[in-house]
Each structure stands twice: as C-alpha cells, then as structure tokens.
Amino acid sequence: MIEKVSPQNALVLVTGVSGFLGGHVALQLLQQGYRVRGTIRRMASATTRIPRFQPFTENLSLVEADLNYDQGWTEAVSGCDYVIHTASPFPSGAVRDEAGLIRTARDGTLRVLRAAHQGRVQRVVLTSSIAATNHGSGRAPFSERDWTDVGSKRATPYYKSKTLAERAAWAFANEHGLSLSVVNPGPILGPLMGYELDSSVGLVWKLMNGKFSRLPRYGCSIVDVRDVAIAHVRAMVEPQAAGHRFIVGGRVFSMKDLSHTLARCFPEYKSSLPTAELPDWFVRILALVDADAQSIVHELGRDLRVDTSKAAAMLQWHPRPEEETIRDCGRSLIDRGLVPLRTATRSL
C-alpha cells in the first residue's frame, strides 16, 4: 500500500539520470516539486549534467553507482521514497559480448531492486521496452500479456537483455513482496536535453544528415520521451499500478513516414531526406555485414502495432501527436548543432 507523500517531502532515486529518458524523468519529477537523486557512472561528469536541470538544481543531487558493481547502490537508495530505474545498457553497433550485455541489464536491475527492498521504498518503477513484448508468439496489436521469446530468431541481444531483466525483476518482486510497476515504451523520440544520441534519436540524426539514400521497409511504434517520463511518474504514485506492466507507444511510423514528416516540418532538409525504399531481399543481404540492418531484418513486413489502452485507463496516459514528437526531435538536433543549420528557401 502506497502512503501518500507530497512531492515536496518525497525523494526519488532516478538511475541513469544522464540518459535521454532518465533526464526527462528527473526533469518531470523536479517540475512537479519532487526531490531527485540521480545516479551516474562517473562523478567526474557531474558538472556537465547538472546545468541541464535549471532552474531546479537545488532539488537535485547526483551519486555514483554502476550497474556492474554492488558498491554505491545501498547509499544511493538510502532515504528514498521511490526508485525509478531507467538505466540499462544499450549497444551501439554489433554486439560482441551478448552474455555481458544480458548480465549487466539483468544483474544491474537486481542490484537496484535489492537495494530498494532493503531501503523499504514504497515503489520501484522499471523501464523495460516493447522489445520485451513484441517478439514472441503474440500478434499485433501487442499488449502487456505478450512476452518476447528469447529463443526466437527475432530476439536480438538487446531484446534478450530487456526481456530477461524484466523477467528477473518480476521474479524478485513477487518473492520479496516489492511494489513494482514496469513501463514498456516503444522507440523513444523527442527533444534532447544534452548532446548524446541514442539509437532512436540517432535514426532522425542520420536521416537529417543525409546518411540514407534509400530506406528499409521497416516501421515501429514511436513515442515521445516527455510522455514516457509522465507514464513513469504516474506509475510511481498510482496505487493500482503496482504489479502491472504498461505499454506506451503511438502509431507505427515506417522509415518512409518518418522521412516524409521531417520533410514537412523542415522543408530546407528535404534534399537530404529520401523516400525511395530498399527491397527486402537487399536488406537481408545487407544484414550479413551491417549491424543496423541485422537489428531490423527479422521485423521486415511485420505488424508491430501496440495496445496502449491499459496505460490510458490506469494511468490516464494520452500521448501527444507523433508529428509534434518528430518535429521537436529534429528541432533539438538543429538547435544543438548536431544537424547543420540550413536556411529555408522561399519561392518568389
């Protein structure tokens, strides 16, 4: 049973606060008046992280903790009312150590949960992914009842890491009576707080920088980082959310849809944004040598729609239009100089 704690009196630990989602979760909490303690892997980077949270920095503190080590987690959780665990390894490029990726995700999650249980926090909210729901025997629209089959040929190392980490979290929570909620977002886009690119925003970066000449026929259920952050905070405080998973996502956008939307929002970049698509057979051949192609080859032609009715009903979660998300994502890339500024040409 969650005790009502006013935001001004509540302290929330956010793991991975320097990440794309973790930063937005922390900002959402700070804006609502919560005190936030964020974990980072190296305190040496603290001075570059804190300014992102102006004007709320007086309610923010940072501590060092690494998912690969036991040290620091007990101290990080000490005195906290809630824990939101967003930190998880995300591979860039080909995965050379699948076992290591899975170990960090699963064992790191258990380190956080053990510390939370020992610290008697009121609830833990875990960031999982639709990577843990969309790749089993279920069919679209995928729901919280669906689980990825880690033995499937579609299960990439990342999908396995998210699935096994979430499975381990539920097993721990059930064994120890820990109040746990899980949020399973689709690929996350939206405005950056820093300069780091994750894979989803990196896709927009590649499109706007002309890195694609043709596009694979692949689509996914995109979602705004700000809306995912809201879902985490609501899952944290909603009494009925304990023991539940929540899929959060939007309409399925193909790569072609994404490119078209960026061209409408930023016509000055239209020349960099392709519309021609690659045949599936070519992507399958490319997957033999290219890590990006390999990560999507088993999704070609699949219906990846998701059912978000549970989040809507229990969390009152209603995402903003996907076009707004894509526009704000592109604008933040331009504003940070990650995409060169272009001047829109006007026809006479």
TrEMBL record:
Domain NAD-dependent epimerase/dehydratase: residue ranges: 12-249
Entry-linked Gene3D superfamilies: NAD(P)-binding Rossmann-like Domain (3.40.50.720)
InterPro entries: Epimerase_deHydtase (IPR001509), NAD(P)-bd_dom_sf (IPR036291), NAD(P)_dehydrat-like (IPR050425)
Transmembrane segments: none
Top-level taxonomic group: Bacteria
Entry keywords, A to Z: Oxidoreductase
Molecular function as annotated in GO: oxidoreductase activity, acting on the CH-OH group of donors, NAD or NADP as acceptor
Family to which the UniProt record says this protein belongs: Belongs to the NAD(P)-dependent epimerase/dehydratase family. Dihydroflavonol-4-reductase subfamily.
Protein's name in the database: Aldehyde reductase
Species of origin: Phyllobacterium salinisoli
Phylogenetic classification of the source organism: Bacteria, Pseudomonadati, Pseudomonadota, Alphaproteobacteria, Hyphomicrobiales
